[in-house]
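thread from #wetlab-drylab

HS: before we spend reagent money on co-crystallization trials with D-glutamic acid, can we at least see a predicted complex? here's what I'd submit
DV: go for it
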Amino acid sequence: MNNIDKKDLPIAFFDSGVGGLTVYEKMKKLLPCEDYLYFGDTKNMPYGEKTKEQLIEFADKIFRFFETQGSKAVVMACNTTSAITYETLKNNYKFKIYPIIQSVSKVIAKSDYKKIGVFATPATINSHAYSKEIHRYNNNIEVFEIACPEWVRIVEENKQNQPQSVIQVKEKLEEMEIFNPEKIILGCTHYPYLMNLLKKFMPEETFIDPSISFAKFIKEDLAKENLLSSKTILGSEKFYVSSSPENFKHAGSLFYDIKELPELTIL
Ligand code: DGL
């Protein structure tokens, strides 16, 4: 299929849960006339605690599902799968794939910062994907990576206001403060949901939410590839989760108001 025929196919997104909505929301504002698919793999969440083999299996099934739906591009709106599965799977499908870490590290590497912190899931941190990708383009930036194993569950289970969650967030910020970074990347798409809590302890400007530059990067790349939709009316959207649709709707409501959410077992 050539790009003229592909143009009007949907752009698909996936994440382990509501985290990818932080990217989706920005994309939808930038490109409202595109059609979209979103898959939240809530049954297998949290991805940050899974093995490479498991993550490859989940991602491959999700890519295959999007293939059956006819997608022109798939956005890996999940740092963990981008870090662990992208290299293995990137040439296996017919659509364009946008992995978050590899896409935004190029942009971050162009900055003048000398010290950057990264908060991410244990799997992302153990892979050192952020430091490797940033250093690929710029070796003058020191990168300090800290895993935050509890944070995804705080978001998915809506526990932002519980005293235990406040302690878990504060502890990680104190750990990071020792390195005195100029900026801290929220290297898991779930973490921007914690901004109200994070900014109690550090100024909001300290944090980089990669979803902003990621959405811009995707738009520019689709334009370059001549893959932007020719439609001029508001596009459609379809959301799917692999379990707990009500929980997903509720937890995700900070970033997006989802109307319909069928449960879909593909994994
Ligand atoms: N939101 C995903 C990420 O960006 C996955 C988090 C998880 O399920 O552990 O890494």
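DV: The first helix runs from residue 3 to 6.
HS: ok that's useful, forwarding to the group
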